[in-house]
Design brief:
The chain has helices spanning 3-9, 19-24, 40-51; strands at 12-15, 29-34, 55-62, 67-70, 73-76, 81-87. By secondary structure, it is an alpha+beta fold. Strands 1-2-6-3 form a four-stranded antiparallel β-sheet. It has a two-stranded antiparallel ribbon with strand order 4-5.
């Protein structure tokens, strides 16, 4: 693993598992939380490198900040960036491994 690939591996934080994300799995689309400063090309290259798949399309968006209230104190949840990755037909990322 080269030095640039090591830094690219830190771009993908974790997969997002929600109702919508599990519905998108039927269309061979996977959802990940990524670094806020990453762009679509870096996300595509990182996913292809880490999971050995062919990425067809990347959709990304920065979601708005949300308020968080604990008792009388009001704060903010951290802002994050979400990427929906469409894979080529026949490629699969195994997110739910059984031991």
């Amino acid at each position: 693993m080269t030095n640039s690939n090591l830094s690219n591996a830190n771009i993908i934080k974790y997969p997002l598992i929600t109702d919508k994300a599990t519905r998108l799995l039927e269309n061979n689309q996977y959802t990940f939380i990524v670094d806020k400063k990453s762009d679509k090309i870096t996300i595509k290259n990182t996913i292809e490198y880490l999971f050995d798949v062919k990425v067809v399309k990347v959709n990304s968006c920065r979601l708005p900040r949300k308020k968080k209230r604990v008792g009388k104190y009001i704060g903010w949840k951290p802002q994050y960036k979400k990427a929906i990755v469409s894979l080529a037909k026949g490629d699969v990322i195994d997110l739910f491994t059984e031991n």
